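Why do we care about 3D structure at all? Because function follows from shape, and shape follows, mostly, from sequence. That is the central idea of this module. The next example makes it concrete: a single protein chain, its amino acid sequence, and then its structure expressed as tokens.
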Amino acid sequence: MKKTRLFLLISIAILSTVSWSIAENGLFYSFNEEQQLKILILADPQDTDHPQEAMLKLLNAALDTAQPDMVVYLGDMIHGPSVHGRESVEKAIHSIVQPVVQKGIPFALVFGNHDDQCGLSNEEQLAIYQSYPGCLAVEGDEMPGCGNYYYLIENPVIPDSPIILWFLDSGTYAEPGKGTYGYVTEKQNDWMLEQYAQIKQKYSAPVSYAFQHIPVPQVYDMLETVPFGTSGAVTCYGPNLGKWYVPKEDKIWAGGLGEGPCSSEYDSGEFDAWKTMNLRAAFFGHDHLNDYCGTLEGIDLIATSGLGFYMYGRGEEHGARLITLYAENPSTYDTKMLYYRDIVDAPLPGLFIPYLGVLIQQYVFIGLSVLILLVIIIVFLVRRIKKGKNKNAPAK
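And the structure:
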């Protein structure tokens, strides 16, 4: 793993309320004074260089409410197709990072499937994030993706059970024959297993938690296929469009399913790798309407609803997810969603923005305007034609 430069470590030490030290395999992060680690997940801000006021209000309210020790951006920080040029990309990134930096909170990140659609590679964008004090993200070893890394958190209560936070690049879109969306590749899995084996040589019972943008295909093992019209059923984009799903009651124990997960369809073996790594939970973004919490084969698979209002979302249930880890029991964690309705003292944006987002609402208005214009033109032409016929009609 590429080590973070010394000046970055110094900046983090100054700005953060937690301590750091260099170790052989990355950085050792410490629990807070209460022997807890509070992590705030921000999924899918997906905004532009002209950020939405509602998104910024939600972001700041989540930071104030959670008082986190660490922030994790879970991909699609910007809506790449709507951000053009390096200057615009820098402004878009600044708008979502600056509130965190101002509070002196360290932050990690993974990339989503829309970040690199701006014309700047993820490597170039990572350098922008790294220019901010407190950025924990690194490019990682030579392997597919950008930003595959981990942080090992020493456990002052149970020294043999540190916590490992894995940050994985789940790619963008799959190769032909492997479905629609990206996935963590076999090479990334091999790296993860190699690193875990090295950690196990020093610690007898490390506990793992994973963060990535696109869900693993196994999330569908927590859902049940039902007929169209079933109460509460949702469908999905892509090849699963037209199939309808509801949560399995014995698998999903909290949160909501607002859309069929746009998970990877190709199984690279990541979930099987997790089962050998004492992985307690994996956290995903990508699906703006989902914040379900489920358990499959002993691993919790957790979704976080979208933060941003530029693209589609869950109305007043836009939000961020708070995770609390405990040194005294590293395999136990608490999590809850912080919803707009509960933490923001301001009304939602008007019209369709809370549900369709600004961009799609613009498309709707453009479509309606074109439709109205066509109707006006057709009515005008019909009247002209009728007028011409009446003019040429013989007198009675």
